Amino acid sequence: MSTGSIALILHAHLPYVRHPEQKDVLEERWLHEAVVECYIPLFMMFEELHRDEVDFRLALSLSPPLAAMLADPLLQKRTADHLERLVQLADREVERTKGDDSFLPLALMYRDRFHRVRDYYQRVQQNLLTPLCRLEEAGRLELFTAVGTHPFLPYLLREETIRAHIQAAVTSHEQLLGRRPRGIWLPECGFVPGVDPLLREAGIQWFCVDSHAFDAARPTPPFETDSPVLTPAGIAAFARDSRSSEQVWSSQTGYPGDYDYREYYRDIGYDLDWETIGPFVHPDGIRVHTGFKYYRITGYGEHKEPYNPDWAREKAARHARHFLDERRKQVREAKRRMGRDPVVTAPFDAELFGHWWFEGPVFLELLFRQMHFDQDEVKPITPSQYLSRYTDFPVCELSMSSWGRHGYGDVWLQGANEWIYPVLHRAEERMNDLVHRAERSSPEVQRALVQAGRELMLAQASDWAFIMDNRTMVDYALKRTKQHVARFDKLAAMVESKEVDPVYLGQVEELDSLFPDLEPAWFRSPWRSGRALREERPTVLMLAWEYPPMTVGGLSRHVYDLSRHLVRLGWSVHVVTTEVPGYPHTETVKGVEIHRAHVMKPFGNQFYHWVFQLNRMLLDTCRTLIRAGHRFDVVHAHDWLVSVAARGLKKEFGLPVTTTIHATEHGRNQGIHTDLQRRIHRLERDLIEESSRVIVCSRHMEWEVREGFQLPSIPLRVIPNGVDPVMLKLPFTTADCSPEPFAREGERMILFIGRLVREKGVETLLEAAKTVVEHHPDTKWIIAGKGPMRTEWEEQAHRMGLKEKTLFTGFVSDEDRNRLLGLAEVTVFPSWYEPFGIVALEAMSAGTPVVVSDTGGLKDVVEHDRTGLKAYPGDAPSLALQIRTLLENPEQARRLAATAREEISRFDWSHIAGETAAVYEEMFTPEENQVRKEIAAHRESRKGKNEGS
To answer: Fewest Cβ atoms nearer than 10 Å: which of 305, 367, 635, 745?
Structure first.
C-alpha cells in the first residue's frame, strides 16, 4: 500500500547558443556535450524502463532555448558531426590502449557507449523531442516548460516583461511539443510575489520553489514541504525537499562525490599529448573535455586510480537503496503528521545526471526499478498527478526566494554583474514604449519590433549573470549581453524612426531566431491609458523604505508626520513601505492608507542587494493598487532607497515624481570613495534627474545637493522638517519622577538621542564628557539609540574612565524618549554631518536646553545664544565649554529653552504639509487644476446645501 509519493523533477536548460555565422564556436559544445552525456543516456534509459513495463513517473522541463536548439536543423547537424568525431576518437582510443589492462576495458566501454548514442540519435532522426513526446503520451513523463529565455524573475523591472517571457514559453512549448504545459519552471527557482497571476493568465497550474520559500510563507504551510500550497492566484507551488536534495547535491555528503564514481575533471582532452588529441579538440588549439575520462574520484588530492564501472554501478545501486530507504522513513513520518499521503518534491538540474555525475542515469534507473519491483510504499508521481488527488491544499502567500547561494539572489546581483541591470531596465522601459508607439505601424516596423523583443529577452537570460558570478567563460557572457542590448537599441531606433534597414533586420533574425511566434502585445501595459480622477481628493503615493513601527532614522517619523497632516489638509495619502513582522500588510493609520510589501531580510552586508528587492516589491505593490482602480496624482519618493520604484512608476504610468532628499551619500561619507558609494550616488543622481520637484530640509542640504550633483537645473524647494508638540507632551511632572533606571537620584543628566553611526559625533561627545566630569562629577551621560558604532563607543567610554558616568540605553520607546527629555538638564547633538536635526527640534519642543554642532541643518534649527548653543563640529573643547555654560548658568539655560519653545511654531507640521502640498500642485497641468477647482466648488456647494437642510 502506498504511504506517499516522490515527484522527481528534472530541469533541462542551456543558454541559447546558435552561431550560423561561424563554425566551431566553443560555447556550442555545451549543447553537444549535454546531448551526448546527459539527454540521450537519460532518454534511452526512459525508453528501456517503458519497454520493461516499469511503472516510472517523472517530470521533465525543457526550457524554450533548449527545446528550440534541440529542434534546430543547423544545431542537429553540428551535434551529429560532434558525435561522429567522438566515435572516431573512441575507435582510436581502443587502438591506443591495446595491451593496457587498466584502460583498454574503459576504452571499449566508451566505444560501445558512443556508438549506441550515435545510433540512437540517427534513429530519432536527430530530433530528441520526438521520443519525449511519445513517452509523455504513454503517461511516463510530464513535459513542462521554463520561463522564456531563463531570466531571473525577481530582477526584471516590469510586469509586462515577465508576462512576455511566460507567454513566449507557453507558446513555444505548444508549438514544439504539441500541447500546452501545465507546469512551468521559474528560472533558478526565482519566485517573486505577483508572478502567480501572470502564470494563471497563461493557464499554468504549478511551479517549484526552494524550501525556504515555505519557511517564510504566510501563513506557515501546515504540511511543511510535504504538500504543495496554493498561491492567492490559485497556482500550486511545490517546495524542494531539502533532505533528498542534500543527499544528491551536497558537495560534502552527496552521492556524486563517492570515491568509486568517475572523476569529472580528469579528461584525455587535457591528459594526452597534443599530437594524439589535437584533431579531436578545438581547432583553435584549445584543450577541452572530450568525455573520455578514465579515472575514479579516488580521494582528495591529485592521485587518481583507474575507473571501475562495476564498482561504480554497485555504488549506484547502494545509493539508490539508501535514497529510497530514507524516503520511506520520511513519508511514514509525514503521513502520521498529515493524515494523508505526502509528496516528496525532488527537483534537480537534468545536466547533473550523466554530465557531472556520470552514474546519475544508472542511479535513477535502479531507483525506479526498485520502487516498481518492490511494490513500494513510495510511488513515483508527477506534480499534475498529485494535484488531482486533493482539492483542499492550503493557501499561502510566498516571499521572494531562489535556490541560489543563500536562497537569495546575490548570484545574479553582485559586483561582477550588477552593471547589467540599469541597462536591461532601461531596455524594458523602452520596449514598453515601443509597443504602444508602433500599434499601427507598417509590417516591416512590426518585424523590427518583434526582433527587438527577442533581443531584449535574450539579453535577460540569467545564464550571463551566473557565468559572470562563476567566473567561467566570462568574456562570452559579457559579449552576449552587450551584443543583444546593442541589437535591441539599433532595432528600437528603427521602430521609433519608422525607418527599417531590411538587410540588418534579416541578418539578426537569422542569428537570433528564438520564439518565431513572439507577439509584441505581450509587452503591452493592459492598463496604460490617460489617468482618471477617481476621487474628489487629490492623491499622493508615498514611497518610503521605513515607516513606524519600523524606525531606523528620522525618515520614518518624517513620513509619518507629513502623511497624516496632508490627510488633515484634504489629501488622500497612500504610503507603500516595507513589511514589519506582526503588523498587517494593509491598514489605515490616522487616515493614511499603509501598504507594507514583503521583502526578504538582507543577508550579511548585502544591504544594497536588499534595496534592489525592496524596489521590486514596492513597484509590484503599486501596480496592484493601480490595477485595483486607485489613481494617483503624484509620487513622493523619500531618498535613494526607493529610486528604482519611483522612476518605474513615472515611466510606466506617467506619474510626476517629487523627491525629498533627506541626506546624501557624499555628505555622509565626506566624499565618494568606494564602489558601493558610487552606486548609491548614481541612484541619487538618477532619482533627482527624474524628479519634477526636489525637496530638501535645510539651506545646507540645498547647497549640498547643488554642489554634490552639479546638475544644470534642479527645481529645489527648502521645506524644513517638523515637530509635533502634542507627541512630546510629558505625562508627568519631573519633580515627581525618579531618574531610575537611567541615573541615580542627584545625578544631572546630559542626553544624546540618535542613531549610533559615525557621523553623529558621539566620540566627540565622550571626549567632551571627560573634561566636563572633572568639573561636574555629578553628571550622568545618557546615550540613547542603536547603531553599528555602539560597541566601539562603549569601549571608548570605558578606556576613558567613563564607565560609571555613561549609559548606552539602546533603542528607547517614544514614552522613554519623552521621559528622558523631561529629566535631562542638557541635550547634546554633536553631529559632524546632519542634514536637518529633527531630534534637536524635539528637545526644543520639550523645553530642554540644547547644544548642537554648528553644521548642516542644525544651523537652521538653532540660533546661538537665543534658542540654544552651538559648538564647532568635531571640537571636543568647544563642545565641553557650551555644555558647562548651561550647567553652570541655569538661568541662561531656562531662557534659551523658553525662547526655543516659543519659536518652534515655524516647524509646525501643518504648515510644512501645506508647503509640500503646494509643491505637488505645481506639477498639475492647467487642465487638472481646472478639474480640481470644479470638484472643490462642487464639494463646497454640496456642503452648503447639507448645512442648509
So the answer is: 745
